[in-house]
Amino acid sequence: MRGHIRTGRGTRSHSVKCAADRLRLPIDDIRLLEGDTDQIAFSNGTWGARSVSVAGTAIYRACDKVLVKAQRIAAHALECAEGDIDYGGGLFKVRGTDRSIGFADVADIAYHGVGLPPDCSPGLEVAEFYDPPDTNDPQAMHLAVVIVDPETGCVALRDLYAADDCGVVINPMIVEGQVHGGLAQGIGQALAEHIVYDRASGQLLTASFLDYGVPRAADVPAFGTTFLASAAPSNPLGVKGASESGAIGAPAAIGNAVIDALWHLGVRDITLPIRSETVWRALCDARRARQVGEGQASHERQAV
Asked: Is a pLDDT exceeding 70 seen at residue 245?
């Protein structure tokens, strides 16, 4: 089974699992070839949360075509009609009998060319492309709980919860890890990560991880995550993207939580990243605005 993709480790396991499930073979019998132009003519890599929904669907459809041809070869080898063949567990069986042939033996016939049905070309290779008719849109709901010190502006993220609809989840552990990684990225965007340039020279001042704020273990709370599964109608696997929702929802949830904590102090807007200085300045601006408003109100009362 050849995969026309270049992937990360998680997508590799998804792709192999898709092929093993569809071919009804042990996962150890599947080998994914990727990113090698000596063997694969083209690969555009994985991006945009598309690997499983697009490449996985291509694998799904390719496996179906492989099985159709393999069943034809098996029926010829077992001297029966194709409609009399049942397939499962890597075996092609003649219905109602004890006669069978294994998938490996069918592949051996296919590649040796001896014993093929009439007008059947050798091999079990399929090149399949899939152009999805529509997008698949994952959905998520995020809840952040923050503690803000109004004196120093320090923000502590106490809790972060996420409920994600990633469609049909093929590998729960990997998907949960993807969401966790996205949440950590979103925390960094909301509370720490900031690219700073020198105004006079244009020199990048946050050029290393010594200067650029990325979230550490102490900055990340224990996540509360759960998953809903509504199958995507745009692909037969029913899968949706899962790697980006954490990074998208977390900054908004954290930002809204900080605003909610400071609302009674007059803060109505705050820019990212929400560092202690950012909060302190927002509080100072709100305090000045409140004093100006109170001064104007007092002047109007005196004028009346």
From this structure: yes
